[in-house]
Design brief:
By secondary structure, this protein is an all-alpha fold. It has one domain. The protein has 3 helices and no strands. The radius of gyration is 12 Å and the shape is globular.
Length: about 60
């Protein structure tokens, strides 16, 4: 089972591998967020997930 620290390291390495994902404004209105899907329900779920991820990583 992965620890939270392992997950954060994995996320950090993925951001280094895929820098183009960091440049767009997404559902959460932040650089690096997932781009909007066009479906309000999906965008809301993405935004909630991004907020949880940001809370775990200490990002605002």
């Amino acid at each position: 089972m992965k620890t939270l620290e392992d997950v954060i390291k994995t996320i950090g390495s993925e951001r280094k591998l895929f820098p183009q994902a960091n440049a767009s404004q997404g559902a959460a209105g932040q650089a690096g967020a997932i781009p909007p899907s066009g479906d309000a329900n999906i965008d809301k779920l993405i935004q909630q997930g991004q907020a949880r991820l940001d809370a775990l990583t200490g990002k605002k």
